[in-house]
């Protein structure tokens, strides 16, 4: 493979979801672009994720409807019928993604190493990236770039935002105060912290002179969580839940001075625009899925919980194993989160600490 790098003309990337994972993938894609500026890149991506990535410079997108079944696969095959890719980077181990990979013509179909090629992904590829020991998801993606001759360094992102999106975000904050954004909802309710905890942190931030915004999607769960946080507050919060597009949310995160969030997509969106994140973790290992550049601000009870559940030290357990339970986030104490707030402010905004 490495001997053929000079001949590469067209690369296809298959990473359909989720928001956090495609944010990690953007860093890998933009490293590829810097290393191989003349290579044409096509990205097969999910519908929701495409709303965030659609203006990414130098990338052609094929939007795949994951819910369309056979029709979606046939549509993908039609869109790829006149293509001939030198390389397919198969960066998603789900069986649905592997079946989709069959619709994409490519000479080299590269997947994860055998240990990580779950759900039979190895059956759908003819080359593999090098094994890695306990990588963060982003580092796992960088393994694909490394195989294509890229020199791995600190990840960089250049996320496109229109003047219109930035203006919309700026118009939500007109009092000149620093901005703290809370994105309280994960994809599963059990990964959410308590509304009382979020409310206490919000009140502390308002007391430090911040405007505090709550952001999230339009689902009933997210709206209810935001309403309950506000009910437990004695101060005014800005409720933007369900009121932003993904691009507008990205703009809000870019304007923010800090973000508080559990294991959820907006936490990783914030990383892409350079906003420090206080991540709240109990179910998953933040060294695998946490905010990549801001591990020092993570509040995590994952290690103690997973060791107790399996009666083994973390080093003896499979990498990425999740803890189970509906009340695990209750282990996170308000005092722990406020300690991270103070640490973050001292590191980045000493004038506010």
Describe the protein.
The chain has 353 residues and is an alpha/beta fold. The protein has 13 helices and twelve strands. It has two domains: 2-147, 3-Layer(aba) Sandwich (Rossmann fold); 164-352, Rossmann fold.
Which key phrases capture this entry?
353 residues, alpha/beta, Rossmann fold, 2 domains, six-stranded parallel beta sheet, 38% helix, 15% strand
Percentage of β-strand residues: 15-25%
Radius of gyration: 21 Å
Q: Give the helix level as a range of percent.
A: 25-40%
SSE ordering: EHEHEHEHEEHHEHEHEHEHEHEHH
Helix segment tally = 13
How would you state the average pLDDT, rounded?
Answer: 96
Number of strands: 12
CATH level 1 class label of the largest domain: Alpha Beta
Under CATH, the topology of the largest domain is which?
Rossmann fold
Domain count, please report it: 2
Low-confidence stretches: none
In which order are the strands of the major sheet placed?
3-2-1-4-5-6
Terminal Cα span = 51 Å
CATH architecture call of the largest domain: 3-Layer(aba) Sandwich
The CATH superfamily label of the largest domain reads Glycogen Phosphorylase B
């Amino acid at each position: 493979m490495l001997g053929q790098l000079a001949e590469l003309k067209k690369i296809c990337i298959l990473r359909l979801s989720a928001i956090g994972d495609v944010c990690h993938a953007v860093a890998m894609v933009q490293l590829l672009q810097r290393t191989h500026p003349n290579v044409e890149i096509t990205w097969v991506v999910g519908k929701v994720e495409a709303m965030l990535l659609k203006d990414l410079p130098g990338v052609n997108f094929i939007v795949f409807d994951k819910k369309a079944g056979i029709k979606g696969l046939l549509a993908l095959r039609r869109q790829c019928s006149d293509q001939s890719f030198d390389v397919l980077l198969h960066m998603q181990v789900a069986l649905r993604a592997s079946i989709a990979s069959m619709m994409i013509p490519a000479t080299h179909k590269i997947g994860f190493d055998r240990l990580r090629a779950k759900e039979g992904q190895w059956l759908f590829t003819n080359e593999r990236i090098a094994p890695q020991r306990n990588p963060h998801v982003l580092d796992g993606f960088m393994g694909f770039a490394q195989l294509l001759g890229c020199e791995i360094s600190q990840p960089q992102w250049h996320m496109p935002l229109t003047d219109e999106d930035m203006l919309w975000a700026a118009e939500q904050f007109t009092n000149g105060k620093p901005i703290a954004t809370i994105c309280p909802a994960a994809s599963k309710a059990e990964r959410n912290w308590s509304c009382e905890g979020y409310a206490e942190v919000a009140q502390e931030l308002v007391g430090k002179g911040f405007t505090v915004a709550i952001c999230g999607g339009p689902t009933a769960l997210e709206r209810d969580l935001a309403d309950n946080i506000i009910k437990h507050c004695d101060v005014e919060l800005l409720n933007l839940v369900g009121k932003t597009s993904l691009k507008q949310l990205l703009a809000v995160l870019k304007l923010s001075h800090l973000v508080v969030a559990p294991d959820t997509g907006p936490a990783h969106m914030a990383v892409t625009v350079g906003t420090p994140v206080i991540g709240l973790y109990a179910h998953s290992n933040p060294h695998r899925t946490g905010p990549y550049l801001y591990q020092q601000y993570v509040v995590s009870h994952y290690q103690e919980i997973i060791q107790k559940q399996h009666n083994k030290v973390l080093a003896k357990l499979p990498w990425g194993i999740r803890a189970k339970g509906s009340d695990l986030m209750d282990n996170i104490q308000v005092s722990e989160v406020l300690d991270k707030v103070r640490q973050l402010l001292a590191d980045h905004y000493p004038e506010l600490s």
